């Protein structure tokens, strides 16, 4: 009997904040930090997407390097010495978060983003009141999800999920330059007229609330969004026999969102339109007689 083994990689030793760790050759610094349990802020990185080095929030200091390096993309080297919490690193991360917070609305960003703003002492007000990016009204042109690009930081995660990292639909991409840069469909067409297949994988990776389900948008607008009361239950999607794991996000007895674990061997965090949005039949109760 032949047993197939994965490629054998030699181990590399490096020092992270004074502690020596060993990781497989070819790992990134972020991989090593994750293995060591060191929390590092990331915005454009996700475990199920190819790193794009866009946000520069995950930068670290590498001994011998003239500039700070993005931990999500820099491969480890034997004997490398890395500092993740030096004043230089903290200053850079604080500045990036302040610039983002001064130019877009991060009030609906993930809990991690809110925690990092406090941890790094972010004060976006010092950049003034006129630093916003190009005004973009909320786009509600379909029944499943909302595009609120006034909250978009151009992390490109939605573009990667719509493209070669997941769906291969290429319905959205970056358009414009400078303060006019934005995420758009081809020729700025309405979403129903684009190549979008409504898988919602762009929603699943968005860190700022620029993309969200219609249900979440409606609850937020009505002041009925209560994430502190949310429970998450993992189950198996019943629409086909593939066996995708799904996570049901429930608030006040109602399913409000559906996601999938990024480490699930079937979905890798991505779903189809039925898996992500096909849950309304679960809570459509018959009328009282």
Describe this entry's structure for a reader.
- By secondary structure, this protein is α+β, with helices and mostly antiparallel strands.
- The protein has two domains: 10-130, Ubiquitin-like (UB roll) (Roll); 145-282, N-terminal domain of TfIIb (Single Sheet).
- Helix content is 20%, strand content 19%.
- It has helices spanning 29-36, 87-103, 111-119, 157-162, 201-205, 214-221, 273-277; strands at 11-16, 19-24, 59-62, 69-70, 80-83, 145-147, 172-175, 182-185, 211-213, 231-236, 245-251, 254-259.
- The strands form four sheets. It has a five-stranded mixed sheet, with helices on both faces.
- A hairpin with a 2-residue loop joins strand 11 (245-251) and strand 12.
- The chain is globular, with a radius of gyration of 21 Å.
- 34% of the residues are buried.
- The model has no long low-confidence stretch (mean pLDDT 90).
């Amino acid at each position: 009997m032949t047993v197939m083994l994965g490629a054998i990689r030699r181990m590399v030793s490096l020092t992270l904040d004074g502690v020596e760790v060993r990781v497989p050759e070819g790992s990134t610094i972020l991989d090593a930090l994750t293995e060591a349990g060191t929390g590092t802020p990331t915005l454009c990185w996700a475990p199920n997407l190819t790193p794009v080095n866009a946000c520069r929030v995950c930068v670290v200091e590498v001994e011998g390097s003239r500039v700070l390096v993005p931990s999500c993309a820099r491969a480890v080297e034997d004997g490398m010495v890395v500092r993740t919490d030096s004043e230089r690193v903290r200053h850079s991360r604080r500045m990036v978060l302040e610039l983002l917070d001064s130019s877009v609305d991060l009030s609906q960003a993930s809990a991690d983003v809110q925690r990092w703003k406090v941890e790094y002492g972010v004060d976006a007000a010092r950049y003034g009141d006129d630093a916003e990016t190009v005004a973009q009204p909320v786009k509600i042109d379909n029944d499943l999800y909302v595009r609120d690009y006034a909250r978009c930081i151009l992390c490109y995660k939605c573009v990667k999920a719509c493209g070669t990292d997941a769906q291969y639909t290429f319905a959205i991409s970056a358009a414009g330059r400078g303060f006019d840069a934005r995420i758009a469909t081809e020729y700025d067409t309405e979403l129903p007229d684009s190549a979008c297949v409504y898988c919602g994988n762009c929603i699943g990776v968005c860190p700022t609330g620029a993309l969200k389900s219609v249900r979440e948008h409606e609850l937020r607008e009505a002041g009925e969004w209560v994430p502190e009361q949310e429970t998450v239950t993992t189950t198996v999607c019943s629409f086909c026999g593939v066996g995708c794991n799904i996570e049901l996000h429930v608030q006040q007895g109602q399913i409000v969102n559906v996601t999938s674990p990024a480490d699930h061997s079937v979905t890798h965090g991505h779903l189809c339109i039925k898996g992500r949005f096909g849950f309304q039949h679960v809570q459509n109760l018959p009328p009282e007689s």
